[in-house]
Amino acid sequence: MKHAVLVAAMFVAAGANAAPAPVQDIAGGSNDDRLSRLERIIKAKQQSEFEAQQRLDALQREVLELRGITEQQDYQISQMLQRQRQLYEEIANLSASAASTTVSVADTATSAGTQSTLGETASYEQAVNLVLKERKYDEAIPAFSDFIKQYPDSTYAANANYWLGQLLFNKGTFAEAKVAFNTVVNKYPNSNKRGDSLVKLGMIAEKEGDSATAKTFYNRVLKEYANSASARLAQQQLSAL
């Protein structure tokens, strides 16, 4: 009997000293499981925020690129409109000069001075028409060259040299084009084609691989013709170097 009681007491003591059951959380998992799930949730949230930031950064870059393209297109359109206005003004001046000369010749047909003026204006107008109306660019080159030789002191001389330089530039004859543009720059300081001629000299230097000289010409335009269409073109060329 005592032996049975002793055995029973031993089992009770063993039960009292046994390790307690693991603590369970409200969701039924252990603290470690809960911590693991929390870490996974935080990591997922961080990854989602990182991806969202990446998409936002990409969108911002696209907006900046589109803005740059738009600004460049706006500048190019503005430049084209400016060139068009200058062309219209030149054509209007030519038409007015031609009309005035025709009337003068009709009234004073025997005047030698009037005859000279008619020949000068008609020659210039003929050379310009080869470019604007007939699109005969190769024929326009000798026409402008002849006009410059025959009328070196003409009021059209600066424009004639610029036209000649532009035609030679388009043809790729840079050495001769350079002579024509330099004539405008050095001989006609008050010409409205001087700034454009400086830009063209810079572009010729670029094509010849002389970036330093090109920058010198572009910077002259920025300094001497600030806020002009020529300056905007010079700045664009500088930015591309």
Automatic annotation (TrEMBL):
InterPro entries documented for this protein: CpoB, CpoB_C, TPR-like_helical_dom_sf, TPR_rpt, YbgF_tri, Ycf3/AcsC/BcsC/TPR_MFPF
Domain YbgF trimerisation: from-to ranges: 31-102
Name of a matching Pfam family: TPR_6
Keyword set, alphabetical order: Cell cycle, Cell division, Periplasm, Repeat, Signal, TPR repeat
Intracellular or extracellular location(s): Periplasm
Domain of life: Bacteria
Signal peptide: 1-18
Main localization of the protein described in the UniProt heading: periplasm
Family, as annotated: Belongs to the CpoB family.
Function in brief: Mediates coordination of peptidoglycan synthesis and outer membrane constriction during cell division.
Protein name per its UniProtKB record: Cell division coordinator CpoB
Native species: Shewanella japonica
Chain's gene name: cpoB
